[in-house]
Design brief:
Two copies of one chain form a homodimer. By secondary structure, chain A is an alpha/beta fold. Chain A contains 23 helices and 18 strands. The longest helix of chain A is centred in the middle third of the chain and has 22 residues.
Chain lengths: 569, 569
């Protein structure tokens, strides 16, 4: 075997040259924790800020223990905790879709818990907590996962802990593994779950009558878990949007090089358009749709199509027959007439299930046209056949259409094509489409996420060693050193109607059209539509002069004076 | 306006933080050129190596002037050219699809030509040469394109210069712009074109009876232009495969994190599987198909499908219900039975055009089944309906099916699904598919491509200032300082049957199953199939300890002892 093949074999299993190097990379730490060689847990004090929502009175009734303890007050780190708790057994789990940086949260927990305490990993998410599938995390584990992407160290799943039986299973796991605390790394739903768990586990769990602490850590590439200055952004958003922005930047760079394509790019991000807005601000494409704006302005599908066609034609008149259109994954659900059409279809299909069962595609369409309100029949007629077929396809177990399966980018391409053909058939309109999603969830974290996550872990562990429960860890003031804070989960709960009943949940943060980020976008987009002013943000750098960048939406919304992030400075 | 919004506006038009920084990045230079602050053209001497192909005798007849001048001998740089030609007017153009690093070739040309000569950019590729669309390139232009991705500085197109009329247009452009030399940056076909142009322009072009020099530069992300040790790789291949490898690595990292998906990833690269092989070597997926092997082993579609299904089932038996399958873009054309089916379909559709014209999809299929040989009818019956419809769809102007439009990754998913359902229906097989192509053609060059391209430009300009014509510039010995060489284009020409007539062309370099890279892959792939041994190469780094990496296939095939590239060391 040659030296080269020998070293190639050594690169297998997470040991690429890059992975070997990033493990050794020091990431910045908020000064209050000390430095990488000597880290200490911090203690927390109440800030003046008390959180509430429209439903706080009712929430307080349901979460008596947690609210009694926290008073829904925000805490901030004030200095080293000189008398931290010890001999704590802490379990950590990932919940929901993966996001870059998760491994660093685990590393941060481990580095504060130290040898005085035990950190246990829960395998495969909430399901592992129910089944008691835990193992002790070692120093060698931490060395190997440091700064790497993915959730594969523990795995994850989407189980929601809701039933009494499930709560009893969690209790059993707590007892079997002698747990003192659980850290839930997850999105809005998982942190809602953490709040419920914190209340349920607040006392009478262990033999001595004490409870098990629960701390949440805000994760999601979608960016829909953010709380003003307190939680500037969920982790993973920065890396995912930097990955998508590189790709969109590369494609933008391709357009005036090959001079013939319009690329329609659908971007992951569930309902909210944070991802699309961030990528637009980083890359400056000809068109970027923002779902929340579509909904607010009650735009019709035809209006959206016309707005894109107009840009295509105007650019073509100037000799530019290329461009990029960004489409947020969830846009269909924000077009009022589409949601109302889908609702009527859901109803009609439920009513006429038997009659429609044996009809062919064409027959089904004809049948349903006769049953729809005139307005909806008219809208339906403007859609391409394959979309009509999808809209009439099988419903899920709740009788709903899986809207996410609709190929929105192709629908828009086809409708814009028809529109251009009708208005100005000479305008060239060659298209390609893309969907960027899975490639962004597990990339190695950007330096921003690597640092943010490590500090989130340090904060979460510090909260545990201060005896706190029912809080979400956060780092704010990212442009001025970084400040560890603790957000009382109960202070975030709203009552929402879900699956036919009222539930207390953390509200998903949608993009706001009155935010600084949206307003800046709205100011520039017409200029970007007219001529190529795009930029290529390039691959995220872990070393060198281009490595320290805050997401643009975060910097604008938090009114930072520049894009540098300054944790530890 | 805030400081932040002001700086965001300054980042428009190729001025992201990354783009601002890479412009300032020094890239390594072969010592023979001096250093970045003081660059000198080099002179060339004959090496002992003479190139020939099976058709050299015939080629020599058609390329009398060039062969007479070069003797088909390879040249190597020997030292500074102390008496370079001057007052040369040199035109440079991009030809074909974009590839990362092209801008640095232009920068390299400019840096050697200096103020004593003039560099002209040809707009929009060969078409611009025919139309005489040229402009003078300035020092400010070079500063702004340095190390950036894309071909947008000049644009490109796919026009082939073949007809007498086109040659006369080129001659006219040479005269109008007083050109002394043309540099063609392109792939195998474009360099074939450069050879023909070099011969045509070798004398009697300018008023004094002299000719116009033509130098080729080897570009293509597909990697199918490589010539043993002389031309280790075409430029752009490294960056494109690093971009795809990051994405595939991210997806691999996602698989054990979410624990439920098989991802089928189609990779750009036209016919050859160099890209798929390189990405496989960098990421170590469960399965990677290599077209050239399929062809050599005469594998049937069913055999390919079974080989994948076997891996899926074996992994599932061990509890691994996820994985990644890499599929080269051109594989269909390498499956003997598929090409023979498509050939028969092309013939039959031509014969029965009228009869089939008004038939529906189902009727068409029934009709054609009765006309096909039994073997082909049987194969056709195993294909999903949508593929059958595609195979019967409209032909191009030559009566051929556009094979590239067949969604191979979806075809494989559907057929593997059927196969698993038949063998072991309990095996979970949830799938997602991807196509990575356009996002890799215009990314900012890796440090490898940035350096390689700059040195290619320095070499090409040096050849011009030495009065050479009909050569392709290359840099070899990338692991030991880098050596500028000149490859006589005529020494590469073979006779191939194209569009029904013999043409002298540079042969496309396919991946070889007896190459070191393939042999290493073949040795490891069964191990990668059985368990997760993948690695994530991460985003390409322009700074820091992970920035200097040669493509793995190049290092293996050239028997380098490691992956470090050492231009200038």
């Amino acid at each position: 075997m040659s030296n080269l093949t020998e070293s190639l074999i050594k690169m297998e299993k997470h040991n690429s040259i890059f992975e070997q190097q990033i493990r050794k990379l020091d990431v910045p730490i908020c000064k209050v924790f000390g430095n990488m060689k000597s880290l200490s847990p911090v203690e927390f004090s109440e800030t003046g800020e008390t959180l509430s929502t429209k439903d706080t009175a009712q929430v307080n009734e349901s979460f008596k223990n947690c609210v009694k303890a926290s008073g829904n007050k925000v805490l901030a780190a004030t200095g080293t905790n000189k008398n931290p708790l010890s001999k704590k057994r802490v379990a950590v789990l990932f919940s929901g879709g993966p996001a870059p940086g998760g491994h660093n949260v685990v590393a941060g927990l481990y580095k504060i818990l130290g040898k005085e305490n035990t950190l246990l990993g829960v395998k495969a998410g909430p399901k592992g907590l129910l089944e008691g599938d835990l193992f002790e995390i070692t120093a060698a584990d931490i060395d190997s996962i440091m700064n790497t992407g993915g959730f594969d160290f523990l795995g994850s799943d989407r189980t929601k802990i809701k039933s009494e039986e499930q709560f009893l299973s969690v209790k059993k796991t707590c007892l079997n593994h002698k747990l003192d605390a659980i850290v839930v790394i997850g999105g809005d739903d998982s942190n809602t779950n953490a709040a419920i768990l914190a209340e349920y586990l607040s006392s009478d769990i262990k033999e001595d009558g004490s409870g098990v602490q629960v701390i949440g850590v805000p994760k999601t590439i979608d960016g829909d878990l953010q709380i003003g200055d307190l939680l500037p952004i969920s982790f993973g958003f920065d890396t995912a949007t930097k990955i998508y922005s590189e790709l969109v930047g590369n494609i933008l760079q391709d357009t005036p090089s090959s001079r013939k394509y319009w690329h329609f790019v659908k971007l992951m991000g569930r309902s909210a358009s944070h991802v699309a807005l961030e990528v637009a601000l980083q890359t400056k494409p000809a068109v970027a749709l923002i779902s929340e704006e579509v909904s607010e302005k009650k735009m019709s599908l035809a209006e959206i199509v016309e707005s894109i066609a107009k840009v295509v034609i105007e650019r073509s008149n100037k000799g530019i027959n290329h461009g990029v259109v960004l489409v947020p994954e969830g846009i269909i659900e924000f077009i009022p007439e589409m949601t109302s059409l889908i609702e009527e279809l859901n109803e009609k299909i439920a009513v006429y299930e038997k009659e429609m069962h044996n009809l062919s595609g064409v027959e089904k369409r004809e049948f349903i046209y006769s049953k729809l309100t005139a307005q909806h029949a008219q809208l339906m007629a403007t859609l391409p056949d394959y979309i009509e077929d999808m809209l009439l396809a099988e419903r899920d177990s709740h009788g709903n259409l899986q809207v996410s399966l609709i190929p929105t980018e192709q629908l828009l391409i086809d409708m814009v094509k028809s529109s251009i053909k009708a208005t100005d058939p000479k305008v060239p309109f060659k298209t390609l489409n893309h969907f960027f999603g899975y490639e962004g969830r597990c990339g190695a974290p950007s330096l921003f996420d690597a640092a943010y996550c490590l500090n989130l872990g340090l904060t979460a562990a510090s909260l545990i060693l201060s005896g706190k429960t029912g809080y979400m860890a956060s780092i704010c003031d990212l442009n001025s050193g970084g400040k560890p804070v603790a957000i009382p989960l109960t202070g975030l709960l709203n009552i929402e109607r879900r699956h036919g009943k009222d539930e207390m949940v953390i509200e998903k943060a949608l993009a706001k059209t009155d935010s600084e980020a949206f307003k800046y976008f709205a100011e520039r987009r017409n200029i970007w539509a007219k001529e190529d002013l795009f930029a290529s943000p390039g691959p995220r750098q872990l070393w060198g002069p281009a490595s320290k960048q805050t997401p643009v939406t975060v910097a604008l919304n938090r009114k930072y004076s520049n894009l540098d992030f300054k944790i530890g400075e």
